[in-house]
Amino acid sequence: MCRFVAYLGDPIFLEDLIARPAHSLMRQSLRAEEAKTVTNGDGFGIGWYAEREEPGVYREVLPAWSDDNLLALAGTLKSRLFFAHVRAATGGGIARQNCHPFRHGRHLFMHNGQIGGYAGLRRTLESLLPDDLYAARRGATDSELLFLLALARVQRGMAPREAVLTVIDETHTLMRGRGIDAPLRFAAALADGDELHVFRLSTDERPPTLYRRECERGVVIASEPLDDDGAAWRLLPAGAAITVRI
Predict the structure, then answer these.
(1) Distances, alpha carbon 131 to alpha carbons 20, 54, 152, in Å
(2) What are all long-range contacts of 172-181, with beta carbons under 8 Å and residues at least 24 apart?
């Protein structure tokens, strides 16, 4: 399972969340505490919104703890809305195009989880993409595919949160139709530069962990608490689908 952090609020340096805390995302890349996979060393990525409408993205296949460029960027980049993700690959191979977050236009997306029986569903799901989004697909992960399927609905006028929920429901229906018993697990974040949409969903009783913390300067969403102040971190309930605005 992967680990991630999302932030929306007053501008802060990325290092304030992904490097400085006692249980920062970089530390989680080496020693996660609430994941089946302790080490998340199959690549990382950061995405941030700045002066332009489209976000910036930096992704690499190195483990987060061993990339000096990540520390350098995190210490100089300041943003009001950013994503950071460390990967434990469950499919799609270790490659830069499979690292999160994924970007398309003004949208960013990252995910922790998997589609059960994805290999048997991939061709059908890809066939549901419109031509422009099919051409935009760069990697081989189920995460990127779910993102693009949701964007297809956003392009047709559906609200982002409802678009994601619809894709998850339709994917689960397809899984049941194929007799797939493996779960669909989905902890994810989607942003457009103004709003942050967060999901903690699963077709079984074991959705990936996802926490929310209200801080003085904004809202933090994280796979695991970033410090030992347990009272400040609230585990989102199973089935949660929330929108954060500042």
Answers:
(1) 43, 21, 10
(2) 172/203, 174/121, 174/124, 174/125, 175/115, 175/116, 175/117, 175/121, 175/203, 178/117, 178/120, 178/121, 180/116, 180/117, 180/120, 180/121, 181/116
Residue 24 to residue 237: CA distance in whole angstroms: 22
Q: Which domains does the chain possess? A: 3-244 (3.60.20.10)
Q: Is 118 left (phi over 0), alpha (psi -120 to 50) or beta?
A: alpha
Nearest to 191 by CA among 2, 1, 3, 5: 5
Q: How many residues does the chain have?
A: 246
**Residue 207, preceding bond cis, omega within 30 degrees?**
no
CA angle at residue 200 from 194 to 201, to 5 degrees? 125
Tell me the β-bridge partners of 110: 189
Tens digit of each residue's pLDDT, the chain (246 residues):
689 999 999 999 999 999 999 898 888 877 666 655 666 667 889 999 999 999 999 999 888 887 889 989 999 999 999 999 998 767 667 889 999 999 999 999 999 999 999 999 999 999 999 999 999 999 999 999 999 999 999 999 999 999 999 999 999 999 999 999 999 999 999 999 999 999 999 999 999 999 999 988 999 999 999 998 888 999 999 999 999 997
